[in-house]
């Protein structure tokens, strides 16, 4: 069975940094498109960042561009989200997700196109 397990969340002050990790098992990680999404209470789940199978394509939401960096280590079956200059509006549950095989560009941004999801990790940013 496929498992995606996030870690690295916590409570920090505005301006601080966190690095989230997502460890994958039960799938061919090196051929999977990976993404990070977040959801705050009362809001829709939103796209944060995505990464292609080889790591060469890394789209970001406009709200995090320049502050967040997505990366992957296919040897360790792990995807990361480095979050710098955190803001209170970044507060949310962050989840990683996987798509099997290749994806057209628009699929990176669309939660419904992902096949597998982790349970999420809470990130809280105080002003």
Detailed description of the structure:
With 127 residues, the chain is mostly beta strands. Helix content is 0%, strand content 47%. It has no helices and 10 strands. The protein has strands at residues 3-7, 10-13, 18-25, 32-39, 46-51, 68-73, 78-83, 92-100, 116-117, 121-126. Strands 2, 4, 5, 8, 9 and 10 form a 6-stranded mixed β-sheet that branches. It is globular. The mean pLDDT is 96.
Question: Helices, strands, pairings?
Answer:
Elements (H helix, E strand, L loop, with lengths): L2 E5 L2 E4 L4 E8 L6 E8 L6 E6 L16 E6 L4 E6 L8 E9 L15 E2 L3 E6 L1
The percentage of residues in β strands lies in over 45%
Coarse structural class: mainly beta
The stretches of 5 or more residues where confidence is low (pLDDT under 50) are none
Following the backbone from N to C, one meets helices and strands in this order, namely: EEEEEEEEEE
Based on CA atoms alone, the radius of gyration comes out at 13 Å
Largest sheet: 6 strands, mixed
Average pLDDT for all residues: 96
SS element count, helices: 0
- The count of strands amounts to 10
Task: Give the CA-based shape.
Answer: globular
Helix content bin: under 10%
Distance separating the two termini: 40 Å
